[in-house]
Specification:
This protein is about 25% helix and about 25% strand. The protein is of the alpha+beta class. The chain has two domains: about 100 residues, Orthogonal Bundle (Hypothetical protein yqbg), CATH 1.10.3230; about 80 residues, no CATH class. The chain has a five-stranded antiparallel beta sheet, with no helix packed on it. It has a three-stranded antiparallel beta sheet with strand order 3-7-6, with no helix packed on it. The radius of gyration is 20 Å and the shape is elongated.
Length: about 190
């Protein structure tokens, strides 16, 4: 399973918010912008959530009984395509499957009384065009924004992998605490 996403239109935290949090000056704008992006990617990776709404393609080798969509929240499914057993690409009509966007992760299942079609046995035989994410920066839960700001602040102050001569500690435990309750578990497919 792989999910390829478009780039976000904006980051969930602005440069001004990061500057206020870190008390940085204008000379560090490029560094802070890079840390914001890295922080967003870290939060998204740790939680299996997508902070800013984006479009993408989910590729699967076959149809599992339930398709659990990484990148919560699932907003919509635009198209579900597959390679039939003769290698021809087919688009499954939307009345042949159900989309549950209210759960995390979002799920796609066959419609009642319908079975998934047989596919060619090749990598990426199933592809799903979809939209995932919270929307704009204003829609991102505050706890995820706070975790991102804590990461940016930590990385801004500690620019090396190891700090010598001080008491060592993990990446801020506060970040882990904030993200733990927001993690999405994909389970078995």
């Amino acid at each position: 399973m792989s999910l390829r996403l478009s780039e976000p239109a904006a980051e969930p935290v602005t440069l001004a918010e990061a500057k206020a949090h870190t008390r940085a000056d204008d000379a560090d704008d490029a560094l802070l912008a890079a840390l914001i992006t890295a922080g967003r990617e870290y939060v998204e990776s740790e939680t299996a959530r997508v902070l800013i709404e984006r479009t993408g393609v989910l590729s699967l080798d076959r149809f599992p009984s339930v398709i659990r969509v990484p990148g919560a929240p699932l907003v919509s499914v635009e198209a579900l395509r597959y390679l039939d057993i003769e290698g021809q690409q087919q688009t499954l009509p939307s009345d042949q499957y159900r989309v549950d966007a209210s759960s995390a992760p979002g799920r796609i299942t066959p419609a009642p009384g319908v079975a998934w079609p047989a596919t060619l046995f090749v990598p990426g035989a199933v592809s799903i065009d979809l939209t995932v994410g919270y929307g704009t920066a204003d829609d991102v839960p505050g706890v995820l924004k706070q975790a991102l700001l804590l990461l940016v602040g930590h990385w801004y102050e500690n620019r090396e992998g190891v700090v010598i001569g001080t008491i060592t500690s993990e990446v801020p435990i506060a970040v882990t605490s904030l993200l733990d309750k927001r993690r999405v578990y994909l389970g078995d497919s």
